[in-house]
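Components:
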Amino acid sequence: MLDVRQIRNDFPILDTGIIYLDSAASSLTPEPVLETMLEFYRQYRGNVGRGIHRLSVKASEEYERVHGKVADLIGAKSRAEIVMVRNTTEGINLVACGLKWKKGDKVVTSIIEHHSNFIVWLRVRDRRGVHVEVVRPKAPVEDGILDPADFAKVIDDSTKLVALTHVSNVLGVVTPVREIAEIAHEHGAYVLIDAAQSVPHMKVDVQRVGCDFLAFSGHKMCAPTGSGALYIREELIDEVEPLCIGGGTIGDVEFDSYKLDESPRRFEAGTPDIGGTIGLGAAIEYLQRIGMENIERHEKDLVSQMYEALSELPKVEVYGPEPERRVGILPFNVSDLNPHDVALALDVSADIMVRSGHHCALPLSKSILGKPGSVRASVYIYNTREEINKFVSTVKEIAETLAK
Ligand code: PMP
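Structure:
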């Protein structure tokens, strides 16, 4: 079980009375994470990987230790497989720009992707003459459930990469990534998982998923903005060209040549976000102390409560599958009201923060929901059943007073 009361003490911003239901966009940051970052800035501020003095040595040790913590969190075999990046978007772009594409290669993705795992592949198509195949969910499409059988129809021996979200940031639906990865590997294709909405909320194991690349952002899991990680399966490290090279990435340099260092250093050019990465390490420890299974169960509980209550409201249309198939994300619309107006009304009238708009997934919004946007409520470790009650009653009031 998860002790929400105890957890809430670590988030003093909640004492102001806000109800934060926008963690899928970015989570709040707990005090222990802030303290760990401040410790770096106050007590051992120095650059990493370069200095011999004690501050630099301590900063390097703490920074490098986070690679190990990420590896442990996602079940990677070694620290060499973990590259620190600014966010999920950078991780995905690193793979897109770094793989050795040839004309005629195929990328298979889906229509429920976030733009960060979609337009990236359209650009590879435009630059490298690669084909992009976009799989749609099975009926009813509004649930967003992807069927491995549909992937089996389009993945062939020319497929170089299957790029898929683990969890949709709009519908909250969990994708059967393991089954799809198996099909991809039968054809020698690599599998990239956008784990921005899964790693913060459930136990994710790259061996179980069977992926070759996996990217996630720290800011959605109690860590500071500007921190995140990309997993690259050990055997593929030499298949990916670093996005940037320069200081910190070299094994040796001559006047007319250079040799890159081992992974992960070769991928982490320049001075990294040392404080942010150390904060990510603290956030991982924080979440692991609570337990990823407990977090998943808590969110499932809250999203079920929200789903059942909102589904009963006249004038409210809830999107996505039954709670069993989703994490703590719930999109909806209130009759003919603009989603931004609903979000604003929730904030102004009841201090409730939600996201509104297309959620960086326009192909999904337009062709699956048939709407330019929606309101999205998302929960995390600090949310309570009382907050969900208040949220639902405020949506009801908005529907009764503002909607036609
Ligand atoms: N993919 C998904 C599924 C997301 O939800 C997000 C964030 N909304 C991203 C990618 C991009 O994450 P970031 O902005 O941290 O790069």
